[in-house]
Amino acid sequence: MSAYTALTAAGYRAQVRDKTTVFFTFAFPLIFLVVFGLIFRGRNVEQSGFSYLSYTASGVLSWGVANAAVFGIGFTLMQWRADDILRMIRMSPAPLSAVIWSRYVLALGVGFVQSVLFVGVAMLPGFGLVPSSRWPLLIPVMVLGITTFLLLGVIIGSIADTPESVAGIANFLMLPMAFLSGSFFPLDAMPDWLQKISLVMPLRYLNDAVSAALTGRGDLSDIGVGCAGLVVFAVIFGAVAARTFRWTKSS
Questions:
Q1: Where is the ABC transmembrane type-2 domain (predicted)?
Q2: In sequence order, what DSSP letters do the residues of 83-109 get, joined into one string?
Q3: Looking at the DSSP assignment, which residues form a beta bridge with residue 44?
Q4: How far apart are alpha carbons 207 and 58 in whole angstroms?
């Protein structure tokens, strides 16, 4: 418990002291919300009849939370391994679970703050988001989403040895996923073949579940399917992460 507490506290201090990280974690997704909100204000998606805001608000929120989880743990594991911090932790009584759980708690905290801040801004008069009555279901959806993408970040942080490689691999996965999973552009307006491709991307399931819970664009079955998809990807990513994790650059 003492190791877990120390690692959590150290991670928190590193998180709040790095102004660049704070900006890209909290302010950067809001910039997308403001831009898309102003461009598509008052417009609906012809194929569904729902407003663009109901798509972009939930989609950008999902992407922002997922991005923070992936990059946060990815850069941390890479840097701790490069600085031999992981090797020292391995030599100490602290278990690997303390390392992962400390980052997990931080990721959940960051995701909670992101969600509250993002939804609060989206509800301002200029945007006018009206949360669905099912909005409390957003909490378990976000927990599943953060878990899934945190495990993806563990994989990236385990195979990458430099900040550039972490950023390159993470962006290679997250940016195309954002566009093809409906975070930046409504899936309903995409060709059928692109919608089918999106089914193999975990962000699609997070987007769908967040949208159904937050904006009511969907029903309980959409939330259930989204959560089930996230569980499947979490199991897959967890198995891969367990095999790829490295305490040092060589092992």
A1: 20-248
A2: TTHHHHHHHSS--HHHHHHHHHHHHHH
A3: 51
A4: 6
